[in-house]
Write a structure and sequence with these properties.
Elements: H1 9-15, H2 32-35, H3 52-67, H4 71-83, H5 88-97, H6 100-106, H7 113-121, E1 125-127, E2 130-131, E3 144-147, H8 151-163, E4 172-175, E5 181-184, H9 199-206
Antiparallel strand pairs: 1-2, 1-3, 3-5, 4-5
Helix pairs in contact: 3-9, 4-5, 5-9, 6-7
Amino acid sequence: MARYNGAVCRKCRREGMKLFLKGTRCDTPKCGFERREMPPGQQQFRRGKMTDYAIHLREKQKVKNYYGVLESQFRRYFGRAERAKGNTGEVLMSLLERRLDNVVARLGFGLSRSQARQIVAHGHITVNNRRVDVPSFLTRPGDVIRVKDRPKSAGIVQACLAESRHDVPDFLARVDGPPLEGHVVRFPEIADVSVPVQAQLIVELCSK
């Protein structure tokens, strides 16, 4: 599967804000965004004013980079949000927040979404006592996300919890155990997203 393997700090610099793609490193002076806030590339300045299309595109790219999804995945989420009842932008952000790798990261079981994705893919997490190794698995209210009861799994997650500096959002609840587990209390809302997002701009772009 295609995956970006370049310097992730370039993504933060391109969007002009921290996306916390490297976990706790983003809170230290070693953060690449802190050292160079200018956009990546040879031209270290913007020429003229951004067009409306550029503004819409940057908003979509920011969300894709934040959740670590590819264009084809993002289009599927948008299509599902478009078919659902309610505000398309809010439904889209709710779907992305419900991803298992995002939930694991928001619970503090992983320091970043990329690490949480790896933890899930390596089989360290169960959902409702069933092993789930698909990072894109969509959680629902009432789901119990539990760390496997084995030394290796618990050790990885406990190390992350010791370094984690972010609070658990309201739509989740964490039990520090044993066993280490989290509960999905309700469906996430756009207010639960920890990065500012103008979802309507994404809807306008993808609806064309």
